[in-house]
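Researcher: Please translate sequence to structure tokens.
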Amino acid sequence: MMTLSSQQPTRLQRIRLALLAVGLSVAAVGLSQRPAVSSTVMPQAPAVLEDGLYLFGESAERDQLGMTYAVLSVTGNRTVGAFYQPHSSFNCFTGEITPNQLSLDVVDSYTQTVHPYTVAVTAESAVVAGKSVATDKTLQGFHRIDTLAARDTEILAVCQADFA
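Model: Translation complete:
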């Protein structure tokens, strides 16, 4: 089991993580929606992440209980990372980045079962002077968080070592 905490996850947390691993996270924890007042999330083609480290969250704020986060490293068209919830275990993934999506193989941290999972890559757009202007790239249903915390880099290091 991959965990940084000595606490055992609750049954509900294990169920949520299992659902996330099979791509049912929408039903398990819901997706936050941004108000349509000044910005929307619209697909832009191509929307490919540049090489680097990324953190995305269902909440725009880090460490919100019940929210799912994705920390990942991108090199070329390959990615390694993890889905996690604060104060819980995490599921590592590896995958390929195509122009508009991440095609991932998510490893369940309890059973070591691999589950395919696909998530769209979109460009957040802001409306400026009546025109849509592309800004940061993000994962559909997630907000980009600019800075990784120590826990994020620790989780990422474990997953990178697992897939090395």
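Researcher: Any highlights?
Model: Confidence is low (pLDDT under 50) at residues 3-47.
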